[in-house]
Amino acid sequence: xxxxxxxxxxxxxxxxxxxxxxxxxxxxxxxPDGVRAAFDRVSGGEQIAGPETGGAAARDIEAPDxxxxxxxxxxxxRPSLGGVWVAHPDVADPERVIIRNRSNGQSVTGxxxxxxxxxxxxxxxxxxxxxxxLGMLAGQPADLxxxxxxxxxxxxxxxxxxxxxxxxxxxxxxxxxxxxxGTRPPAAAxxxxxxxxxxxxQVGIFGxxxxxxxxxxxxxxxxxxxAIRAQTAGAGSIWRVLVGPARSDAExxxxxxxxxxxxxxxxxxxxE
Length: 272
Description:
Elements lengths: L10 E3 L44 E5 L5 E7 L10 E4 L6 E7 L5 E8 L9 E3 L1 H7 L7 E10 L13 H5 L30 E7 L2 H13 L4 E8 L2 E8 L5 H13 L6 E3 L2
Parallel strand pairs: 3-7, 4-6
Antiparallel strand pairs: 1-2, 2-8, 3-8, 4-7, 5-6, 5-8, 9-11, 9-12, 10-11
Pfam families: SPOR (PF05036)
GO molecular function, one term: peptidoglycan binding
Protein name: SPOR domain-containing protein
């Protein structure tokens, strides 16, 4: 456990996703500090979150006794897969966390992983999506606080069966593997207009293909056109559910509102 500051525990909001979804994440980084396969540690099996701006019912509380650190974090400027996450060498298991930028007050919920490969500079590695949400600049360390979250009034769940221990501890992955045969082409393959940097909405990342299919089905029931993008990392697989591309800011906002209205409160805009 790392505890270098003692902020008062506060609640952060997260909407309820489909009750049947057991989510787990396997991420890969672009370069020598690749982030590895991971699984959901939050009771109820919902997917690891993307950016959260509040407004949902308070369901999580901070658990600094599990892990907390305040130290410089660095985004090296390269794009990274998997959404919002940070990685630290002192982490034992993947966790759901709140990340705060102490210099500007911005915060975001995301995932915390073990960083296996250390290099010069700050220990705390930050994904490109996390850096964007926190207002960080490439190559410039920011003073961050990272605290594990736990479900209020609930017990900590066991690791999701969607990702094996082997997948969670296998060697670092430096690039996503080829898409498994028989899956639908990724949504990014459908050309997005150049006017938007992030024309797609990521509904969620899932460690079970059926969970991704269930989420995609919910999107179709809502009148949207989802795509399931499969990736492999180590011994595990993940399935991302995307909707888009949007052709304008207004269309993207409408898509996001619809998706969150279906219960996927952690959905957010992504490039692909």
